[in-house]
Design brief:
The protein is mainly α. Helices cover 83% and strands 0% of the residues. It is built from 20 helices and no strands.
């Protein structure tokens, strides 16, 4: 069992090697004509400039936290793992952005020959992001575990290990919020002036916001999403390790005792088999001749299916190896079933997202038909669809929690620890195939950029037909990945919450005191904390949506100014070019300023409550988990549904482009943009950031 962290580390290196291979493969593809290359370089320059500025701003926050953590907790070396988590998370995002801005024009050029070439190329561009995220996360976690638990053997090894997750969360929070504000400010501003007011097509080269919108796809939906999934993947592995360590009061020198060692490294074993499954599954993705979204989806999801099947088989084998000793454990199959249950529930939540966001199912078509009667009914039907999808997702999570809890008890005995440990490893199962899941998600922004480049480069309409089909599928795959991330957030946050509870008890015992966290809602402090926790996700969502609105207003004013003051721009006079750099600068300035308040809220509020009343903090975390999960699902699916309802109309339904229903659908899409790409996907990070902040600082609260 001691070899498992080393084996997992090797699989992480294999994932990074695969990412390098795909990067080389994508870079070798021809990028198209001079106009396409020029547009690609503009997007690259804007994305790099934004990320450099964003990481500069976030670096100040990271340095402050790196100082505060050891000062407040007294664990001197925790700043090292915190910084490692932050640096690797930022690195994964930057790597994904770099290849995405290379793959976009190359996908457009490949689309000239049809989806058979374009789909695999866009997927491989996304796979660089996917395997960079999974590889760097698992590499950092296994290295941190080996360094502080196995090699150095410090007494505070597991507190140091947990700080890695906080570092990853810090970058993820600001990257998701900052990138989301950037991309949606450009998207909303460009759409409202371009498509609604000026009556020009999406991604038209006359629109000054088009380049900023394309840059936003990369900094928000690639770099931001990559940091998000990096944090989710890391947190899912940290949760069961921390739960085991804090429940048994372990120092590093006790981490080689059976059966404890099995419980500590089993999550890494699951991550290992999931990584191998994802690597093999990535080669199963092929293109096809059809531009039907259903046919394309079948090709794209083949990789995920192969990865899941291999992960199930590998998990059962690992379960037998780990828990087959009847003297130490009871039913060996319990914990593997917990993992497999998590994987299936994650797939199920993704399927719910597909049903509610794909135009092949009734919800999206219903929204499109409601556009016949104007923007108000379009918005109402989208809100309704998003809310109904919450019910289905919550039902799946409830079933997953029950299966995982039961599985943990079957293997570890009828104890609360066994059940919660089962829930913790279910989250690992849900994200075990992160490499290929993120690959499919990151494919979407590349396809979106490819369509924009086809429009701006004025290629044959048949090329745009291919890229539009790829883009429509990308909206659905993005919603599916968000489902995985949000579902794992619920399970991981529950395990981290239990770790927080036992860490409080352990810290009190070390000080010669007795403490048991109360969650009695009849207690006034718990009750107040519960309501405060339920409120914070709504406040967080309001701050991010308002930020998009303010930045979009400035974008709208700038686009209107250019149409008004640059002669011949709106009419498309040859040789007249928009000032795209001004729009890029507006989105950059607006997003960087606006991301600070929501980010600070997630870190400061739990710390303030924890130092005032720990029981109130317990209620606070519980309330935030429930309302944050529901809001995340609602906003992600409602936003995706509005977007694809618009695309369904643009494909010819209900009057097609330029019709009144199309204008109504565009309004619905602009409402949904900050829902699905800013506020919604930030919720799962918010939930875990507040929980892991509480866990890292638990000893200081007692």
């Amino acid at each position: 069992m001691q070899a498992i962290p080393y084996i997992a580390l090797v699989s992480a290196l294999a994932a990074l090697a695969l990412a390098a291979f795909f990067f080389k493969d994508v870079s070798s593809a021809p990028p198209g004509n001079e106009r396409m290359v020029a547009i690609m370089k503009q997007i690259q320059a804007g994305a790099r400039a934004f990320l450099r500025q964003e990481y500069t701003w976030v670096a100040g926050f990271v340095v402050i936290m790196a100082v505060l953590i050891p000062v407040i907790t007294g664990v001197a070396l925790s700043f090292l793992s915190y910084l490692l988590g932050a640096v690797l998370s930022a690195g994964a995002g930057y790597a994904g952005m770099t290849v995405a801005t290379r793959a976009n024009a190359r996908t457009t050029n490949a689309a000239i020959d049809g989806p058979a070439k374009a789909l695999p190329l866009a997927f491989r561009g996304g796979a660089v992001m996917g395997f960079s995220v999974a590889g760097l996360s698992l590499l950092g976690l296994t290295f941190t575990y080996l360094l502080f638990v196995e090699w150095i053997g410090t007494d505070d090894a597991f507190e140091i290990f947990t700080a890695f997750g906080l570092g990853a969360s810090s970058i993820a929070l600001f990257s998701r919020v900052g990138g989301g504000i950037y991309t949606k400010a450009a998207d909303v501003g460009g759409d409202l002036v371009g498509k609604v007011e000026a009556g020009i097509p999406e991604d038209d080269p006359r629109n000054p916001a088009t380049i900023a919108d394309a840059v936003g796809d990369n900094v928000g939906d690639v770099a931001g999403m990559g940091a998000d999934l990096f944090e989710s993947y890391s947190g899912s592995i940290i949760a069961p390790v921390a739960l085991t360590a804090f429940s048994f009061g372990l120092a590093a020198d006790a981490a080689d005792q059976e059966p404890i060692v099995q419980l500590l490294v089993f999550p890494m074993a699951v991550a290992f088999v999931g990584m191998i499954g994802a690597i093999i599954g990535s080669f199963a993705v092929r293109g096809g001749s059809s531009t039907e979204v259903k046919a394309l989806a079948k090709q794209l999801h083949r990789g995920t299916t192969v990865a899941m099947i291999l992960t199930v088989i590998g998990t059962l084998i690992m379960g037998r190896v780990f828990f087959g000793d009847g003297d130490l454990f009871e039913a060996w199959y319990g914990l593997p079933l917990s993992v497999i249950g998590g994987l299936i529930v994650g797939w199920g939540i993704g399927k719910v997202a597909e049903i509610w966001t794909s135009d092949h199912f009734p919800p999206v078509r219903r929204i499109a038909s409601q556009a016949e009667t104007g923007p108000a009914t379009t918005v109402l039907s989208g809100v309704s669809a998003g809310m109904v999808s919450v019910a289905a997702s919550v039902g799946l999570i409830a079933v997953g929690v029950l299966i995982a809890y039961w599985g943990g008890q079957q293997t570890l005995g009828d104890t609360t620890f066994g059940g919660v440990y089962g829930i913790a490893v279910a989250a690992v199962g849900m994200l075990a195939t992160t490499g290929v899941v993120v690959s499919v998600d990151a494919y979407g922004p590349i396809a979106d950029n490819a369509g924009g480049i086809a429009e701006m480069a004025e290629l044959d309409p048949s090329v745009r037909e291919v890229t539009d089909a790829l883009d429509s599928l990308g909206n659905t795959t993005a919603a599916i990945a968000k489902g995985f991330a949000v579902g794992s957030a619920a399970l991981t946050a529950l395990a981290l919450f239990k770790s927080f509870e036992v860490a409080l008890t352990s810290a009190a015992a070390e000080k010669g005191e007795s403490f048991v966290l109360s969650l009695d809602v009849g207690s006034v402090d718990v009750f107040i904390g519960l309501f405060l926790g339920a409120m914070v996700p709504f406040l967080f969502a309001a701050l991010t949506i308002d930020a998009v609105g303010r930045a979009a207003n400035k974008m709208i004013e700038e686009v209107r100014r250019q149409f008004r003051e640059i002669p011949g721009l709106r009419e498309g006079t040859p040789g007249v070019e928009p000032d795209s750099a001004a729009c890029v600068a507006i989105s950059t300035r607006g997003s960087l300023r606006e991301m600070l308040a929501p980010g600070a809220l997630a870190v400061v509020v739990p710390l303030v409550i924890g130092f005032i009343d720990v029981d109130a903090l317990g209620g606070f975390l519980a309330g935030a988990l429930v309302s944050g999960f529901a809001l995340a699902i609602f906003m992600a699916n409602a936003g995706g549904a509005w977007d694809n309802a618009k695309k369904y109309i643009e494909a010819g339904a209900h009057g097609g482009k330029g019709s009144e229903p199309h204008k109504a659908a565009v309004v619905g899409d602009t409402v949904g943009d900050p829902f699905k790409d800013t506020a919604g996907p930030s919720m799962n990070i918010l939930i875990k950031v507040m929980t892991i902040v509480s866990l890292v600082f638990a000893s200081a609260f007692v």
